[in-house]
Write a structure and sequence with these properties.
The complex is a heterodimer. By secondary structure, chain A is α/β, with parallel strands linked by helices. Among the domains of chain A are: about 110 residues, Succinate dehydrogenase/fumarate reductase flavoprotein, catalytic domain (Flavocytochrome C3, Chain A, domain 1, Alpha-Beta Complex); about 140 residues, Methane Monooxygenase Hydroxylase, Chain G, domain 1 (Up-down Bundle). In chain A, about 35% of the residues lie in helices and about 20% in strands. In chain A, the strands form 6 sheets. In chain A, strands 1, 2, 6, 7, 8, 9 and 16 form a 7-stranded mixed sheet that branches. In chain A, helix 1 runs parallel beside helix 4 and helix 13 packs parallel to helix 15. By secondary structure, chain B is of the alpha+beta class. Chain B contains 14 helices and 7 strands. In chain B, the strands form 2 sheets. Chain B has a 5-stranded mixed sheet with strand order 2-1-5-3-4. A two-stranded antiparallel ribbon of chain B has the order 6-7. In chain B, a hairpin with a 4-residue loop joins strand 1 and strand 2. In chain B, helix 11 crosses helix 14. The longest helix of chain B is centred in the last third of the chain and has 16 residues. The relative contact order of chain B is 0.08. At the A-B interface, helix 3, helix 4 and helix 10 of A face helix 3 and helix 4 of B.
């Protein structure tokens, strides 16, 4: 049986930085499992940048301003002790990444360049053109190679084995051989990213962002925190939902409706296009609803105009964005405006982390970092540039936390972990031979449709209850689905079956949390409860899964310095 | 209704075969759309990898009619137009081991990647708690090479790699280059030497990698740079360097090559002797005249002035 001191699941920014931290104790055996090759991870898709109050571009910027902006951006749902910790030490992370070799764009003095971003009171987003996540991901991979980190590529997490609130081990499939392995571990770090694929095609997320680690934690008894907070990025390409970086607005891009007006003046007169994502996304949708968009139905959009930036600035700062608009919409942003519309981008909610310094969850031995987790530093709405920051930052502290946990725990019970693996083996062999049942892709697509139309940018009780009913039906239908591939080796049909199962559970939690939160806060925008209601809802949602029962309760928000106030931009 | 036929190389770990799938043509779609549609509507056993669908993760490189493309960003209509055919052949990337269908094994390539120490060897000008100062000009030297998404297309296209396992795939040479030119790196030779020792001079200059690179990285220029640097490191006594010197010297003195002495200068007398049968065939077909010692070309003064200028400019 495989045995490791620390097992990290996921090899994006959080997972690889966790691996580097955990490996600092050379006596520990550390392994990283990833369902894809590490440099394919979704951290690489992050474009615009990474926030840290370096004060290079604006000497008046400060850690406190970053702290305040993040709390205000979160609509006061972020835990302020965690945000303060995060903003205080982020500048150290930038220096460390620089030392690792991240090719940051530079200012005239050779310092890391910074740009303005939505919801930020100073230009503090450090960047490398518009491929910041890509270069950070590759640099962390290089550091992992340098430090001899052991990777298991094409290994998919199936479940976490927990007994009496303590980690025993995990079960994973080696996709290439098709073997299912029980793995003993003293501690694990879950770093599997978000689950934007509950909206399937209306998302900027990669195909594999299916919340495997989040769902495994949910099944293992760790609650999901604040799942109802889903970020819709305002500028997805109209046709495909592919991301046009926030750097477009950061560098000075305009948004126009079909009247030729910069409509953000109606919604955020002082910040204009640089309002936070939730505000801009809602504004775009309202313009489209009022008939001031272009096109109709799923292809309706507004225009983003970058022409006034000039060719030189576009080529220097937004080269990837230009390529994407050319490749996917046949639009050259140097010459014409491009159609954009909001697209699901990020999950503020996730695995309940209860100690922000170690990223420990309520289950002893399990830590979580990155988008899969909810610390919470993003609250009801994450600021652009705080996600890659979160990933690298909490990846580091989760790795250190898991190292310490492993130093103080022994390996779990092999027979429990084997039994869990055996269950998966039977399931795999059953699914390989089952040839009839409900169509898996239809189940997935119906889920996405229900979520997009009913638990999307604007929400009402009636619509969400309908979505929840649909999800319940689909969970039922999922029990009798089939995969149509009998192979043992590299059976992606089976992996997709596992992924859709994960998405369904998480979609249900999103809908439940959203129905119960009878207020509008950050990204959660209800047409039947249009105001924020601090008296009743200044608290975190926690959804527990106990067998087939989903139970909802709440936990308090940590407020240290900034009392809730009206959030205007 | 126009039908497009996709003939796909299948492999299940033991057995290999070709399978044809038909799709109704739809305008404005990508190759990834086609494979996804086949998998979801016709054959769930078809395996390929893809993730981000916007050309940044590097998962989805596949060979179409022999050439590797990132299928997420490649337009179906453009490919049909290029080949003037409604039948396309899909195959996994060349120069990789196949896991299943269009899925390839990256482990051996990763091991090869490690030979060039693909990580920053930091100078003493920086530290983990201070970072570095790097000029915008120095950043620009690494901007393009760090665009590499490690999709493997250059490796699939590489004619040298197809014949010579010792050669490093172009993306690996790119990684060596990326650190060799980084102002923060203390030891460029640590990245360059392994490239040199793994047949750096065997690159054929065929430009297949450059022409297919989805990020437009000038791998050819990078390889030229690595070679020059290896010569500066003293690696001048090898066929590649001698060949380069022979070109340099011939053109400087005569404005053109002397094809008779070129192999002598490159490979020495002994090895050149082994090529006599080949040389004789060339003589017979009129490709080579061993008695011809070319005179300097008209305008040789101009050539020499160019040399002087280039050398002066370097100082």
């Amino acid at each position: 049986m495989l045995q490791y001191d620390v097992v990290i699941v996921g090899a994006g920014g959080a997972g690889m930085n966790a691996a580097l931290s955990a490996s600092k104790d050379s006596n520990l055996r550390v392994a990283v499992l990833s369902k894809i090759y590490p440099t394919r991870s979704h951290t690489g898709a992050a474009q615009g940048g990474i926030n840290a109050a370096m004060g290079f571009r604006d000497p008046t910027d400060s850690i406190d301003k970053h702290f305040r902006d993040t709390v205000k951006g979160s609509d006061f749902l972020a835990d302020q002790d965690a945000v303060e910790f995060f903003t205080t030490y982020m500048p150290d992370i930038i220096r460390e990444l620089d030392y690792y070799g991240v090719p940051f764009s530079r200012d005239e003095q050779g310092r890391v360049a910074q740009r303005p971003f939505g919801g930020a009171s100073s230009p503090r987003t450090c960047y490398s053109a518009d491929k910041t996540g890509h270069v950070i991901l590759h640099t962390l991979f290089e550091q992992c190679l340098k430090n001899g980190v052991k990777f298991f590529d094409d290994w998919c997490l199936l479940s976490l084995v927990v007994e009496n609130g303590k980690l025993e081990g995990l079960v994973a499939m080696d996709m290439r051989s098709g073997e299912i392995h029980p793995i003993l571990a003293k501690s694990v770090v879950i770093a599997t990213g978000g689950f934007g694929r509950i909206y399937w095609s209306r998302t900027t997320n990669a195909f594999n962002m299916t919340g495997d680690g989040t769902a495994a934690c949910f099944e293992a008894g760790i609650p999901l925190k604040d799942p109802e907070f889903v970020q819709f990025h305002p500028t997805g390409l109209a046709g495909t939902g592919i991301l046009m970086s926030e750097a477009c607005r950061g560098e000075g891009g305009y948004l126009y409706n079909n009247k030729g007006d910069r409509f953000m003046s109606e919604y955020a007169p002082s910040k204009m296009e640089l309002a936070p994502r939730d505000v801009v996304s809602r504004s775009i949708e309202l313009e489209i609803r009022a008939g001031r968009g272009f096109g109709e139905g799923m292809t309706a959009h507004v225009l983003m105009d970058l022409r006034h930036l000039g060719k030189e600035k576009i080529m220097e700062r937004l080269p990837q964005v230009r390529e994407l608009a050319l490749d996917f919409e046949s639009v050259d942003i140097i010459k014409e405006p491009v159609g954009v519309r909001a697209s699901c981008h990020y999950m503020m909610g996730g695995i309940h982390v209860q100690d922000y310094k170690t990223c420990a969850t309520p289950v002893e031995g399990i830590h979580a970092a990155g988008e899969c987790s909810c610390v919470s530093i993003h609250g009801a709405n994450r600021l652009g540039g705080n996600s890659v920051a979160d990933v690298v930052f909490f990846g580091k502290y989760a790795g250190l936390g898991a190292k310490e946990t492993a130093q103080n725990r022994s390996l779990g019970n092999p027979s429990l972990v084997s039994a869990a693996a055996n269950e998966w083996m039977s399931k795999f062999s059953r699914m390989r031979t089952k040839t009839t049942g409900n169509n898996l892709f239809e189940i997935r697509n119906r889920m996405a449709e229900a979520m997009w139309y009913n638990v999307g940018i604007f929400r009402t009780e009636k619509n969400m209850v309908q979505a929840l009913e649909t999800i319940n039906e689909l969970l039922e239908a999922y029990q009798d689905t089939f995969i149509g591939d009998s192979s043992v080796k590299y059976n992606t049909a089976f992996i997709h079956y596992v992924e859709v199962g994960n998405l369904l559970k998480l979609a249900k939690a999103v809908a439940m949390g959203a129905i119960a939160r009878k207020e509008s806060r950050g990204s959660h925008s209800r047409e039947d409860y249009t105001e924020r209601n601090d008296a009743e809802f200044l608290k975190h949602t926690l959804i527990h899964k106990e067998g087939d029962l989903y139970r909802l309760d709440y936990s308090p928000v940590k407020i240290t310095k900034y009392q809730p106030e009206a959030r205007a931009y | 209704m126009r039908t497009i036929t996709f003939k796909i190389n299948r492999f299940d770990g033991d057995r290999a075969w070709t399978q044809a799938y038909d799709l109704n043509h739809e305008e404005g779609k990508t190759l990834l759309w086609a494979l996804t549609k086949i998998r979801e509507e016709q054959d769930p056993t078809l395996n390929f990898t893809s993730a981000c669908r916007h050309a940044i993760c590097g998962s989805c490189a596949v060979r179409i009619n022999g050439h590797a493309h990132l299928i997420c960003k490649t337009s179906l209509d453009e490919i049909l137009e290029i080949y003037k055919s409604d039948e396309l052949a899909f195959a996994p990337q060349a120069n990789f081991d196949v896991v299943r269908d269009l899925v390839v094994d990256w482990r051996p390539m990763t091991e090869r990647l490690e030979t060039v120490k693909p990580w920053l060897i930091p100078t003493e000008d920086g530290a983990a708690d201070t970072g570095f100062i790097q000029t915008p000009k120095d950043f620009h030297k690494i901007a393009s090479p760090t665009d590499c998404i490690q999709c493997g297309i250059c490796a699939s296209e590489c004619e040298q790699l197809a014949e010579n396992e010792n050669f490093l795939a172009p993306f690996i040479l790119n990684r060596a280059y990326r650190f060799a030119v980084d102002s923060r790196d203390a030891a460029p030779s640590e990245h360059i030497r392994p490239a040199f020792e793994n047949d750096l001079w065997k690159c054929l200059h065929c430009h297949a990698c450059v022409s297919q690179c989805p990020k437009g990285i000038r791998l050819d220029r990078e390889i030229a740079y690595l070679r020059q640097e290896s010569m500066k490191m003293g690696e001048v006594d090898n066929a590649g360097a001698r060949h380069a010197y022979a070109f340099h010297d011939d053109v400087q003195s005569k404005g053109r090559l002397n094809e008779t002495t070129l192999p002598l200068k490159t490979e020495g007398m002994l090895k050149t002797m082994r090529r006599i049968p080949f040389a004789l065939r060339m003589v017979r077909t009129g490709k080579l005249n061993p008695l011809h010692f070319p005179k300097a070309v008209n305008g040789i003064d101009g050539v020499r002035r160019i040399y002087a200028k280039v050398k002066g400019g370097k100082k």
